[in-house]
Design goal:
- The chain is an alpha+beta fold.
- Helices cover 57% and strands 10% of the residues.
- 36% of the residues are buried.
- Mean pLDDT is 83; it is low at 169-173.
Amino acid sequence: MVEIAQIFNNNSALVNLGNQKQAIVKGKGIAFNKSKGSNLDTNKIEKLFYLNTKGSQENLFFLMKDIPIDVVTTTYEIIDYAKQKFNYDVLDFVYITLSDHIFGSYQRFLSDTYHESLVPDMSNQYTTEYLIASHGLDVINNNLEINLPESEIKSIALHFINARGEEKRANHLKKNEMMNINKIVKRLLTENNIFRKEENGNYYDRFMIHLQYLTGRLDEQNDGNEEFSKKLESEMKISYPESFKIANEIYDQLQNKLAKKLSGSELLYFIIHIQRLTKEKTIK
């Protein structure tokens, strides 16, 4: 028996495992007629996702502010598969980026505005990531009862390619660098009339969280996927010219002020975050 920390719905809950450890559990009717603090029958557990780091626990509550629990648990299931099947280490920010991507794809599919991914195919170079993404697509379609095309595999793989790393190494944040990064980015956002507002608060906060993890990765930046990043960068420059301009300015100033080389994938994420904040429409 385990203690329920929070009920999400009749079929999923957050549980305490002792020693400040938690996990998400799923199972048909597993939390029906239960309440916080009551015991949960472990025989009903069909799936269990451990929250092994403080960051993954914090990200769970951050995600649940505006993303349905079914999307959140789907994200955790895919990441758990990567860890268990391939012993694939990822930085905790992937919980945020991947869940946000899945939710966006889900919404576009339901509203009939979904367009197949423009991400170039790099499966020959990133076999493991594409195997994870292929399974991930099956999980998404099954759990959310939709039918995203196989091209979605490329987008899912990108999140794992860019998030690979050991969280224990990324957690040693350098306060001075973090403060400098936030200062530079917030100044440039202000200069481009981008402010935190009620309607974009979640996107703004996600950008700040991404920057926090960037601080922990500064000494581990590499260009192992430079070709991949360059192809996607070219596509996004055409599709979102204004977002690209702002993101590129942030990218260049961070490199100059910190005297450190950032990977091309960081620029891609900057573009994505800026586009969400500005709501710039795609140029086809």
